[in-house]
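FAQ

Q: What does a record look like?
A: Structure on top, sequence underneath. For example:
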């Protein structure tokens, strides 16, 4: 299976992942203008009626950017992320908005819905699905997805626990379509490593939190800059699903990041803990990030960061080509 035409002319093989609350039109537009696929979760548009306006704003801005004379690289397409789960009552309506507006790429999480995939294919869009293990990958392939996103150990948000090398190799044996690798990829050399390992694209989330375009507080942005991999805590305590959080943000709500209590398994997806003092909410009060925070040393605009990634990627390509040639 080949790479969909819309994804063949990116500046770098990077899909900027959807970030709850943080990814809104300004961030997505800048990512696409920088030649990288930008994305946002449909749920970030609140109320739901805002989704159509966001898609129109992004589409129109990118269309006029694409016709600017003298562009060095093409404007990349954008994606909308759908959390396809019983806990999301908006998914049908949000998908209808995306289909009506022919959103170039859909990224689904939790469930890959065959009817949605067919609808997206009818207008020529592409449909990728994120998974954390081989069982979920098999189900998504059966449903007919165009591409798989492997969310491996160290990723921001609801991360998996598998080594990227292990999961990528196993999935490659059963799927010859596009594969996106995720988990603590924050540098251009990390992107090249994903490609060298057999992926077609890298998925980067945490890196974009340290941009002025991300909708996060200054304190969150600074905490990303000030944290390293050892500060990240993997727990299901806050949302019922295991994810990676900044230890310093856990301390900031009065909890010991090294003594996070065990969660009652019956309380899955219950966001409001009765036994915590202030009903701590993940994303709002306790902040997520992946282990790739350690190489983020400053806040940079999306454009500056894309230039840096470009430089790092090509420097790594030269270095690895030299090593390979001398082997
Ligand atoms: C703050 C934050 C919010 C996220 N929100 C979402 C989301 O709404 N939907 C989703 O599919 N993934 C979400 N993710 C996960 C990312 O899409 C992606 O899998 C992850 O960021 C990749 O790993 P990295 O952060 O190490 O680059 C989120 C991640 C972070 C850090």
């Amino acid at each position: 299976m080949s790479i969909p035409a819309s994804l063949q002319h990116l500046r770098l093989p990077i899909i900027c992942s959807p970030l709850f609350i943080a990814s809104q039109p300004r961030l997505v537009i800048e990512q696409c203008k920088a030649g990288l696929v930008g994305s946002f979760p449909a749920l970030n548009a609140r109320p739901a009626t805002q989704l159509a306006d966001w898609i129109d704003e992004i589409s129109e801005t990118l269309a006029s950017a694409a016709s600017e004379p003298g562009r060095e690289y093409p404007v990349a397409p954008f994606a909308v992320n759908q959390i396809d789960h019983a806990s999301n009552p908006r998914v049908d309506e949000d998908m209808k908005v995306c289909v009506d507006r022919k959103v170039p790429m859909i990224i689904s999480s939790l469930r890959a819905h065959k009817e949605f995939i067919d609808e997206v294919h009818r207008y020529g869009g592409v449909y990728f699905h994120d998974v954390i293990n081989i069982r979920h990958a098999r189900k998504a392939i059966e449903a007919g997805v165009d591409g798989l996103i492997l969310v491996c150990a160290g990723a921001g948000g609801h991360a998996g626990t598998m080594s990227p090398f292990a999961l990528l190799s196993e999935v490659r044996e059963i799927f010859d379509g596009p594969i996106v690798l995720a988990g603590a990829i924050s540098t251009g050399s990390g992107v090249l490593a994903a490609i060298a390992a057999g992926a077609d694209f890298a998925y980067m989330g945490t890196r974009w939190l340290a941009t002025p375009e991300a909708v996060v507080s200054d304190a969150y942005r600074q905490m990303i800059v000030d944290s390293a991999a050892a500060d990240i805590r993997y727990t299901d305590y806050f949302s019922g699903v295991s994810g990676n959080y900044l230890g310093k943000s856990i301390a900031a709500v009065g909890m010991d990041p090294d003594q996070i209590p065990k969660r009652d398994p019956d309380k899955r997806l219950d966001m409001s803990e009765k036994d915590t003092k202030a009903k701590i909410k993940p994303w709002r009060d306790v902040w997520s990030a992946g282990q790739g925070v350690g190489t983020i040393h400053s806040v940079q605009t999306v454009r500056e960061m894309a230039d840096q990634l470009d430089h790092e990627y090509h420097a790594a390509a030269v270095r690895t080509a030299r090593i390979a040639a001398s082997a």
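Q: Is there anything notable about this one?
A: The chain has ten helices and ten strands.
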